[in-house]
Design goal:
alpha/beta; 14 helices; 2-enoyl-CoA Hydratase, Chain A, domain 1; Rossmann fold; eight-stranded mixed sheet; six-stranded mixed sheet; globular
Length: 429
């Protein structure tokens, strides 16, 4: 028996019966090294590849803290960075906190909530609006000839200090270390280009040209110091790394692999993924991320079950999958004018084409059925209810097409195709 946690406080008990448990991947395997504020101070004072941040700045510098959406415990991290700068004799009037827009369907974060009131009155908070041309400034033309427009708070600053959410592997919408800058704080046209289906390769990974462009823009802007937060279970803060971009990139990969990477001996017939965290983590974008992780572990035509507490209506792109004659048709229609959730929809469509997908969520089962996704909903404490199109319940060759309802929880793996192997994990950020 194993317990899979998901949501804020939910969990599901899984008994494997005749199945073989290939791997059980939990949360971070190492303890949080220090309290958050102390950890942030320590890495700023002793960064990798650079002297202390206090020696890299002057009291008169105009400093912009560029805060990417999705940073774990963002307000506390931002407060710790501001406190370090002020303790280093930086004038609070010269500090700007630049906030990015939340992902499609996500809740906006308040990055200044933990900053003391006396400092908050002097610090400038800027919300990035990619459609507001007056708030943007031309930086340069990229190697490919694309004009680069960024928020003026970045181009006007003496020092830009990005704070990003570290990812050890490619996930939809994350193009590398400098994603905390670009396209996060770019113009709307650039953001649309990066969320287009054209940004994804055949395996759902970002095309090299897009990744290289982000790295180039970090160089053009002159990013010399970066802060990357490594998430813990449930989207909480786990560890922070700061210093020169190249050194931070290597350190993040090493720490992330030590914390989150699990080796799976072979692909499984069933993969169960749990998305932990509160409402800000329960999004369609994180469902896409869960599928990215699962696709590396499941056999073709196997089964993926995502346990979450997603309740929000799907975005424009996901909705288009419901109405289209085929998922391929819907994806092609997103190419020229991609909605905000285009990458999410593409990842979802590709998963549905390859595996039998089930969601245990708060979503309408009829809506999921339109997407060719089976719905697993709590029926009573010891049972689940499965609804969906017959094809999702026809796993064994030549077996009758059946609809299963009120299946005891402990028998779930056997009913889902009697797999010869089983794998489950909590979502790694």
């Amino acid at each position: 028996m194993a317990t899979l946690r998901y949501g804020a406080n939910s969990s599901v008990q899984i008994e494997f019966g005749a199945c073989t448990l290939l791997a059980e991947c939990g949360g971070p395997r190492s303890a949080r090294p220090a309290p958050l504020a102390e950890a942030v101070h320590d890495v700023l004072a002793k960064p990798v590849g650079l002297p202390a941040l206090s020696r890299c700045i002057t009291p008169s510098d105009q400093i912009t803290i560029a805060l990417e959406a999705g940073v774990p415990e963002a307000a506390e991290v931002a407060a710790a960075v501001v406190r370090y700068l002020v303790d280093s004799a930086v004038d609070p009037d010269g500090i700007t906190v630049l906030r990015s827009a939340p992902p499609a369907g996500g809740e906006p974060q308040n990055p200044t909530a933990a900053i003391p009131a006396d400092l908050l009155r002097r610090i400038r908070l800027v919300d990035h609006d990619p459609r507001d041309r007056a708030s943007l400034a031309y930086l340069a033309a990229s190697h490919s000839g694309e004009p680069i427009w960024l928020n003026r708070a970045l181009t006007d600053a003496d020092v830009v200090l990005p704070i990003g959410c570290a990812h050890g592997r490619a996930v939809p919408g994350h193009f590398g270390l400098h994603s905390a800058i670009y396209p996060t704080f770019a113009d709307y046209q650039a953001q649309a280009r990066f969320r287009s289906p054209q940004a994804l390769g055949a395996r759902g990974r970002h095309r090299k040209g897009f990744v290289d462009a982000v790295a180039e823009i970090g160089w053009l802007l002159g990013i010399a110091f970066t802060v990357q937060v490594i998430p813990g279970a449930g989207g909480a803060f786990h560890q922070v790394v700061a210093g020169s971009p190249d050194q931070v990139r290597r350190r993040v990969r090493a720490v992330y692999d030590q914390t989150w990477r699990w080796d799976v001996p072979r692909r499984a017939g069933v993969v169960v993924v749990g998305i932990e965290g509160g409402p800000e983590q329960q999004t369609w974008a994180n469902v896409a991320r869960a599928l990215t992780a699962a696709m590396d572990c499941v056999r073709d035509e196997g089964t993926v079950i995502v346990c979450c507490e997603v309740a929000e209506a799907p975005g424009e792109a996901v909705e288009s999958l419901r109405a289209a004659r085929s998922h391929q048709q819907a994806v092609r229609a997103m190419t020229n004018k991609p909605p905000d959730d285009a990458l999410t929809a593409v990842q979802l469509a590709r998963a549905i084409e390859r595996v039998n997908l089930f969601l245990r969520s708060r979503l309408d089962p009829d809506m999921l059925e339109d997407l060719l996704i089976g719905a697993i909903q709590p029926f009573h404490q010891a049972a689940v209810q499965i609804s969906g199109t017959p094809r999702h319940l026809n796993y064994a060759a030549g077996s009758p097409r059946v609809t299963i309802a009120a299946v005891p929880q402990k028998f779930l793996p056997q009913y889902l195709g009697r797999p010869d192997s089983f794998f489950f994990r909590r979502l790694a950020p």
